[in-house]
Amino acid sequence: MKCYNHHDRDAFGICTVCGKGLCLECMNNQNAVITCNDKSCIGKLNRTKLWKTFLYIVLVALILLLIFD
Ligand SMILES: [Zn+2]
Ligand SMILES: [Zn+2]
Fold first, then answer.
1. Which ligand is located closest to the Cα atom of residue 15?
2. Could you tell me if 11 and 21 are in contact, meaning their C-beta atoms sit under 8 angstroms apart?
3. Domain ranges for the chain
4. From ligand 2's centre to the CA of 46, what distance in Å?
């Protein structure tokens, strides 16, 4: 697979949002999650992360309620 932006370079990673191949220069590494430098991909990833954090907090709260009830 070649980089989406540089067709002469091999891809080192794949955007987890849109699935484009990315060379080292085009990779955007956010807490070990790789995306391309597309703003919509970075934004989408951040929204997904917020949801995951929210669900995690709800889950922990439920567990705590079950333990201390
Ligand atoms: Zn992308
Ligand atoms: Zn590239």
1. 1
2. yes
3. 13-68
4. 22
Measured in Å, residue 44 CA sits from the centre of ligand 1 at 9
Residues 20 and 2: their CA atoms lie apart, in Å, by 9
> Hey, what are 65's tokens?
């309620």
Q: Report how far ligand 2's centroid is from the alpha carbon of 13 (Å).
A: 10
Listed residue (65, 63, 45) closest to 53, CA to CA: 45
CA of 3 to the centre of ligand 2 (A): 5
Of the listed ligands, the closest to the CA of 37 is 1
**Structure token pair of residue 64:** 């705590």
Question: What pLDDT is attached to residue 23?
Answer: 96
**Per-residue pLDDT tens for 4-47?**
999 999 999 999 999 999 999 999 987 788 999 999 999 998 89
